[in-house]
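B., you asked whether I could sanity-check this one before it goes into the benchmark set. Here's the sequence:
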Amino acid sequence: MATFLYRVGRLAFRRRWYVALVWAAVLAAVGLGAVKAPGASDEGFSMPGIESQKAFDLMEQRFPGATADGATARVVFVAPSGEKVTAAENKRIVERTVAELGDGSQVAGAVDPFQAKAVSKDGTTAYATVTYKVAATDLTDTSKSGLEKALEEARDSGLTVDAGGSAMSDAGGAGGAAELIGVAIAAVVLLITFGSLTAAGLPLLTAIIGVGVSMATIMALSSALGLSTTTGTLAMMLGLAVGIDYALFVVSRYREERAKGRTPQEATGLAVGTAGSAVVFAGLTVVIALAGLAVVGIPMLTKMGLAAAGAVVVAVLIALTLVPALLGFWPNAVLARRARKSGRIELGPRDNGGTRWARFVLRRPVPVLLLGVVGLGALAIPMTDLQLGMPGDEAKPTSTTERRAYDALAEGFGPGFNGPLTVVVDAKGDSDPKGAADTVAKEIGATEGVVSVSPSRFNEAGDTAVFSVVPSTAPTDEKTKDLVTTIRDERPGVESKTGATFEVTGTTALNIDISDKVQSALVPYLIVVVGLAIVLLMVVFRSLLVPLKAALGFLLSVLASLGVVVLVFQQGHGAELLGVEQTGPIMSLMPIFLVGIVFGLAMDYEVFLVSRMREAYVHGDSPAEAVTSGFRHSARVVAAAAMIMIAVFAGFIGESDSMIKMIGFGLAGAVLFDAFVVRMAIVPAVLALLGHKAWWLPGWLDRLLPRVDVEGEALSRRPEADPHPTPSETADLETVRT
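And here's what the prediction gave me:
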């Protein structure tokens, strides 16, 4: 592996113009394909195998067109204090507003609340439902401005008017600003780390090129492969993260080799042969984690994982080819300013903060280990109270119209009104379908926790009925989940009475089912991903205990980060400091995203840090010396990479959307715990206690596992300099000797 990549690096250095042109051509080709490809179709969210999805599919089959994915807006009218919306003047304002809302080329219809009996019992609140012919992502600015104008005019007339629904969602978001802030912070960290604008800019440039290639490819293939508009979100986030990391490690190793007096071409070859080998295996662990998302069984999540895995592969290829090619263009510009100005390159390793920290841990391994494990363990305790769900408008700030509309409906119609259940009765083959549906509705209506049941609506064939059930509790309340479970548990008795079957669906039931399925899939996902990674790390490190330690440390950091997320976003401790106005269940997909993304980054740090220790150990250093050597060469770079990721993720904490806050906070915390507590403290402490045993591998397992030269042992037996240095390299060598 190391020898092959060494040759790749030297070839890319020598043929830098060809390599640069090839990548430019690839970027242009996929960019052109993205421009000419049909737009990505938003197929919606689906999860095969759960009851609510089966019921939804049955509705699509029996009620053609009734479940069309058109945008909706629910406009809520609240009368001034002491008045009612049914008063003549207020009623006139509502009717005029509804007429305005129904006037638009993309509007399918607007339902008058007085005709639909959508008025609260106390007469203070009413709501109108506006449906559109197109999905929310296809709404034009004209349609959105028409909706906003109608709302403003009603407010000016004295009513409190707010709106929720998919039509109110802002597809643009502020993620782009957060990404730009993250890139800016990354540039500052890289500049401080390298002391060179070129060295800081090169990883950013190659990472952006890699993200461009990946995103353009996803857009070009979106129609052919059925990728939705959200598929590339994870690919962009991870592509930028690992793209910076991988280029950072190769450039850092290049500078080290130049410091030893090697020529630019030789230093490039050695950097790609050693750091590049670590990049390949780190990339493989990330790909395993992302491909493993298929275990969860959510098609959208599987596509997102595979697309992100493709972005990681692109980042690896760029680190192995384009980075060495760019080093060929600017061989000296990436060196530190002091080396460029003095004309001399310092030879030999020097002590730095990494070595001093390593020696501190080596002198006190037990206290450091106990402090790290106990500290993370304590932070993980709240995770035992983890409740998964899909927060909706109730989790948004009160400054948003969606949240105010949600609160107004909850106050006027009850907390369960915002999350009604939909019951689908399949009476096909039953002699009395209407009687069967009425019996099912009556039995469910008598269940404790049910406020009301709507009249049944039948399809044209008359063999399938649909009705709504309003719970007494909010959609994310645990009592609502218990109600859904109770209704389903009572199904056998109801079905025996009627001969018809029924299933429970709707947004609330769908979110409950998704949460249950994700929670049950989390452990198998961890087993598959961590198990495969342990095998891969055993191949890399030729050790049994080092991979196990890496996996256990990762689990500890993930559990701690989930515990902190629960502590803040579910239990509310310190929530006001982050601007979280409403606590509640943790987003269902949050643990899966957290595990997938952080596992990839954690294994990056593990491979880059410990591979240098393994390299030193293989070359004759004692276990303690190997730990010190690994920290001398890699600690500063790993710390810089972690700080970049923490800054990027922490930037999302400032967003108004609570789910984005949660994801940013969780990822930033997980990287902080894993990089600085697990990798920087627990790992050297464990290696200090294990000594030579850390690098032990049973003989039978050693013979079974394939051998790959990640440490560059074969390269260490090569001559120190190129057999045929170029004139410019000869001049560089003369500069070093001087």
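One thing to flag: The first strand starts at residue 72 and ends at 78. Otherwise nothing jumped out at me.
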